[in-house]
Sequence to fold (488 residues):
Amino acid sequence: MAPVLSRDPRTGEVRAEVGVEADTAAVDAAVRAAYATLDLLADRAKRSALLRAAADGVEARAAELIATADAETALGVPRLTGELARVAYQFRFFADIVDEGAFLGVVVDEPDPAAVPPRPALRRWKVPIGAVAVFAASNFPFAFSVPGGDTASALAAGCPVVVKAHPDHPQTSELAAATIRAAAEQVGLPANVLVLVHGYQAGVDLVQHPLIAAVGFTGSIPGGRALFDLAAARPNPIPFYGELGSLNPVLVTEQAAETRPDEIAAGLVASYTLGQGQFCTKPGLVLVPAGPVGDALTKTASDTAATAAPGALLDGRMREHFLAGFAARAAAPGVRTLAAAAAAPTDDAPQAVRAGLLEVDAVDLSSELLEECFGPVTVLVRYRDAADAEAVLTRIGGNLTATLHAESGEPGAAAWLARLSRFAGRVIFGGWPTGVAVAPAMTHGGPYPATTAPTTSVGGTAIDRWLRPVTYQTVPTELLPPELAERP
Fold:
C-alpha cells in the first residue's frame, strides 16, 4: 500500500509519512466498524454529549491542530484559528439541535373514520439514514473536513461517519479524527462512531460500499461528478450531497459604480484574494458597467490587485492548474490583463503566486471565462446596459452565491435580486460572499453544479440530509419510540 505523505505547500517538501492508503479490505473494515455503532448512536443524550465533548476536544488541542494545519495548507494561523473556533461552535450548535428535538419532524395524525378514505392513527418522524461517507475538502482543513459540518450534522442525526481524508492535510486529519474518537469514548460511545481512511481508491470503495447509505462531498466538479455517478450506478443508489464548484457572480449597477467605485473595488479584491482565492464562495465573475461610469472602479481594482501579497496555494498541482488556467483565460479573444497572475517566490514561500485580474466586454465573453478558476483571480465583465447584463446572466449555471451592489432604493434592485435568486442558493446585497455563517437560516448550496441536490451543507437544516422519514400506523403507544408516544 502506498504511503500517505504530508507536504509543505510553501516549499513542496515532504514533512512526514503519516500512514498508508487504505485498500479495499481496509475500507470494508472501516465501514463495518462504523456501521456497528449505529444502534448505540440512537441515544440522543449521548449524541449531544459527544458533540459537546468534540467541541471541548478541538479547543483543548487547538495549538497543535492549528500549527499542523498551517504547515500542511499555508492558510495562516489567523485564518485557521477562526476556522477552528467555527468548528467548536458548530459542534455545540448541533448539540443544541439534538437536545431541542425539532429536527425529528414529529407529526401526529389522529384516526378519522369520516375522512375519505378513512384515516388510521399515524405518527411520523425522521430516523438516521445509516452509516455515511464524508469527503474532506482541501481548502478548509477543519470546517469542511474531518471535524466539519458534514461530520457534525451526520453525528447529530445519529449516523456514524467514515471520513476520506484529503491528501493535502493528512496529519491534520489524523489529529482531528483522534480528537473526535477520544470525545466519543469520553461520553461512553465507541471510538468507531468516526473512522478515517486515506487514498484515492478508498474514496471509490467508500461510495460503492453496500453499508454506506449517503455521501457528503466538497471538492471539484470532475471529481464530485465521477463519485456522484458511482453513487447513482450502485445496485441500490444512494444520496450524494456534493458541493462541486461555483463562479459566485457579482452584479454592480451603474448607480453603485458611480457612487462607491473605490469601496466596491477594494471589497472585491479583498474578497477574491482572501485565502489566496481558495474559498468556494470566491467571486469569480463581476459585471461592471462599461464606459466612464465603470472605469474608476476598474482602475482601483486593478491597482489594488497589483499590490496584493503573494502566497502559496494548497498544493503544487493546484498551483500549476491556477497558473495554466489564468494563462488560458488571458489568451481568450477580447480579454485584457489588468493584473498578471504569476509565480512570485518569496524567502518563506518559494511556491507562492500573485493574484491576477482580467477584463472583457460582455459581447466577447467566452464559455471558458464562465468556468471557475480556483485561486486568486476574477474576471470583470463590462456590460453596456441591462439587456447586456441579462445576456450574461442567462449563461450562468447554478451557484452557491450571487451578489448585487446597488444603491438603497435604486429602481430595479428588487428585480435584479429576484433574477439572481434563480441560480444561487444565497443572494447577497451590498457585501461579499466569503462569510458562511453557522446559523439556522443559512443556505450553502445551490442549483447544479454548485451542489448535486437542493440542500445546504451549513446551518441547522444540514442535518436533514442524513435523515429519512418513517411513519408508524396503528401502533400501540407502549410500542412507540418515546418521542412519538407523547402527543406534541
